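Provenance

Sequences were taken from public entries as deposited. Structures were produced by running a predictor on each sequence independently, with no templates supplied. The record for Bacterial transcription activator, effector binding domain from Chryseobacterium taklimakanense is shown for reference.
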Amino acid sequence: MDLTNGFKIIGIEVRTSNQNNQSQSDLGKLWEQFYSENIIEKIPNKISNEVLSIYTDYKKNYTEDYTTIIGVPVSTLNEIPNGLFGREFDKENFQKFIAKGEMPNAVIKIWSEIWEKDEELNRKYTYDFEVYDAKSQNGENSEVEIYVAVK
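Predicted structure for Bacterial transcription activator, effector binding domain:
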């Protein structure tokens, strides 16, 4: 499924920052909540079982506050269960990266490389996202696609 043309999502969110390892703690808790509360089963109108982790509402860039959403793509936002929220994301230009290896370390490594290239990538800071599907559950052979919005 091509998500670069925009999509709707229902899931859970947290406002966080990369400062003082805050995001590591917040995102760990968000993922834990997503799985422990079986959020995926509560989401209606799913168009896939791919789990998306979206980074958006950047205050400025990756060094400032931003919002992370973990959820699933849906066909409509007409029905949003209590405690969850829905959001629509427009079409965007992306540069695609693939994190390969043990998760979450492989994803953390790729984000470090992206941050190092922040200027040359000409990032847009609208929203970026990761796609977790069957390939992301293969131990040290896992793969996660990362899409970074660029100008």
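Residues 61 and 125 are 6 Å apart (CA to CA).
The chain has one domain: 3-149.
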